[in-house]
Specification:
The structure is a single chain. This protein is an all-alpha fold and 290 residues long. It has a single domain, classed as Orthogonal Bundle (ABC transporter involved in vitamin B12 uptake, BtuC). It is 71% helix and 3% strand. It has a two-stranded antiparallel sheet. α2 packs parallel to α4, α2 crosses α9 and α5 packs across α6. The radius of gyration is 19 Å and the shape is globular.
Length: 290
């Protein structure tokens, strides 16, 4: 059995999951918002990139950047106009509002782009395959893994090697104390929500050459992103990367070995983690919890 292809396929999907879950982790870790609309931001990023590649720019990488920029602005608008009014509310209010945004986004996509599946070809210079042992593997998959690793390293450097990153970590630990020290937490929340939306959009744009996108895609994505956060650990970049790799590889090998049970394996992993280590593999346990 050639294990190279399922491993590489799993790591490619893990790269996509990481980009989605990293933005979700960033927003949830600091703002404590259960944002079910995060997957819809990923879906909208894919459609904006598709529109840009098909007309506005004609170039895939320009379309990816356009998707990130447009969804970053949309994320700030949503945070300023809606999300900030549910800070500190019960999770039920957060779920109702953000799930309502999911429905609005899906109907908006149907109205503008229709119900058809959307996909684009591999972009240059990653249109050809590479040899992995005796098998051929799309070079774009390797590029996507590299992009995810670069973004992971960039986020770590920002959070742990810059003053702005220290402010973000401080706000995650104690938002009231951070505000008392003179930090504009309102502006910080908008910036973080915009950054998280941009990461989701990049994930949606980058998955277009690999997977078709249609209305409903966002809800599927956000569920898997929450599973990644549960498995890897809240508020930890490397935890999000590790959780993405575990879920991506489990899906890939599940499709190969037990296709009828593939999704159940993912949910079973989450259930086991919630029972044995609810704060995740690399997460920090609550005070007083052993």
């Amino acid at each position: 059995m050639n294990l190279a292809l399922p491993v590489l396929n799993g790591l490619t999907y893990a790269a996509f999951l990481f980009l989605v879950s990293a933005g979700l982790n960033l927003v949830f870790g600091v703002m404590r918002i259960v944002n079910f609309a995060h997957g819809s931001l990923c879906m909208l990023g894919a459609y904006v990139a598709f529109a840009a590649v098909g007309g506005a720019t004609g170039h895939f990488w320009a379309g990816v950047l356009a998707a990130g920029a447009v969804l970053a602005v949309l994320g700030v608008v949503l945070e300023r106009g809606l999300i900030r009014f549910i800070y500190g509310r019960e999770e039920l209010y957060q779920i109702l509002l953000t799930y309502g945004l999911v429905l609005v986004a899906e109907d908006g996509v149907k109205l503008i782009w229709g119900r058809m599946y959307r996909q684009i070809g591999f972009p240059p210079p990653f249109g050809g395959p590479v040899h992995i042992g005796r098998a051929l593997f799309p070079s774009y998959y390797l590029a996507m893994m590299g992009i995810a690793l670069l973004i992971a390293a960039g986020m770590w450097l920002f959070l742990y090697r810059t003053r702005a990153g220290a402010v973000v970590r401080a706000a995650s630990a104690d938002q009231e104390m951070t505000e008392a020290l003179g930090v504009n937490t309102s502006l910080l929340a908008s910036a973080l929500f915009g950054a998280g939306s941009a990461l989701a959009a990049l994930a949606g744009a980058l998955i277009l050459p690999i997977q078709t996108v249609a209305p409903g895609f966002g809800l599927e994505v956000v569920i898997e992103a929450f599973i990644v956060v549960v498995v890897g650990g809240l508020g930890n970049i490397w935890g999000a990367l590790l959780g993405s790799m575990i879920i991506g590889l489990m899906r890939s090998f599940g499709i190969m070995l037990v296709p009828a049970f593939e999704l159940a394996l993912v949910y079973l992993t989450m259930a086991v983690m919630l029972v044995l280590r609810p704060w995740g593999i690399l997460g920090t346990p609550p005070v007083g919890r052993h």
